[in-house]
Amino acid sequence: MIIKLKKPNHDLSRRAILRGIGASLTLPWLESFNAPAWGESMTLPKRFFTYYTPNGYNMSLFWPTETGPLLANSLQGTSLSPLSPHFQNLLLVNGLNNHPASSQGDGPGDHARGTSTTLTCVHPLKSADQLSIGTSVDQHLADLWNNETSIRSLEIGCEGGGNAGSCDSGYSCAYSRNISWSDNQTPLPKEVNPRLLFNRLFGSLDPNQSPAAITQRQRRRQSVLDFVLADTQQLKNQVSASDQHRVDSFLTGIREVERRLQSQEESQCQPGSEMPIGIPASRQDHAQLLIDLAISAFRCDLTRVATFMLGNGGSNKAYNNLGISEGHHALSHHQNDPIKLAQIASIDLWQMELFAHLLQGLSEIEEGNGTLLDQCTVLGISEVADGNAHRHYELPVVLAGRVADLNMGRYLDLRSNNAQEPIANLYLKILNDAGSPLNNFGDDGINPFNI
Prior knowledge:
The chain has 451 residues and is an alpha/beta fold. The chain folds into two domains: 111 residues, no CATH class; 295 residues, Alkaline Phosphatase, subunit A. The protein has eleven helices and 20 strands. The strands form seven sheets. It has an eight-stranded mixed β-sheet, sandwiched between helices. Strands 1-4 form a two-stranded antiparallel ribbon. The longest helix is centred in the middle third of the chain and has 28 residues.
């Protein structure tokens, strides 16, 4: 996207950083910061965010009933209905396949294969102690943008666990617990603690400040914003009125995240609590905090690549918050039981409400003459379609924001064309749009997706 900027203040640096005693904060895009000379143009940065959920969906309720342009009511009655406010920014694609996740003679282990190939599209080596797969699409993008940001990529999620041992029918746990791979043997573990993520992103402390001092500041409930107050006031005297509004909005968001983290920590200090400080007891609060922090990282251009895993591949965590006591993985083997299918549909709806939270957060942030969502490719996906059948074909793929030069606001059903479209072709399209010279991706991506 190319935009025209007002006359800039060339005395300000390209990347604005508020500094104070004991802390620093990188600010979001502001029109006043070292913009091009009067009348010149500026290209806004692109981002990539993956929203992964385990165990598939109730596919009978997933897609709209009609293909073509999406309307405001197109998603009503489906699991995607929470996304209705963003229908113009969606691209729903039914019929994308991930053949590298199929068994190919390796027997069971569909969740490990499906999860590890979600973004790599390379059939993994079946072994509990040896890894061999491929570099994931997010990490190819991180390679392209690595010199532009202070953090190469973010890997976050609600369910942790190490990579050692076997987790699914002889496959290494690394395959089930990671979707980001920097090369064919190196998974990138995710951060599950919002407090640690916050400190990594925004708690850049004075080198002379000890860990004890950091802890003391947190116990005294001092905000990182308290340390940069003077710099903030000076900055606001140098920028435009619209930038002053952006700064206020950004700092308010940072303080709100801090407040929520502190509130969670206070509630966890009760006797008998075993929850680590910084991880909310509520799954929804936990997920939303992680997502909001990733959005803030995008907003500040700290990173341009993020992956979020709501759960590990084949996760059997129960959705007690929805009144569902049976584990999710066990429930996904529904055998067409109408009661289980209804419970899966409830889980699906909740997961899409969380996805809508992500899209809403991105759409509320102004960037250039649009929003942060306009500059972000958001991918919603699971390792399988129907968990009962362990299908890696006709995957539940929901795209939002911008996807290369593809028109948004549509529902495409590739099955009507009898097409066998690898999802790797979609990733190749995204990579080429970002400037990658790759002409193939994964095991079967050879033609950039275009429809």
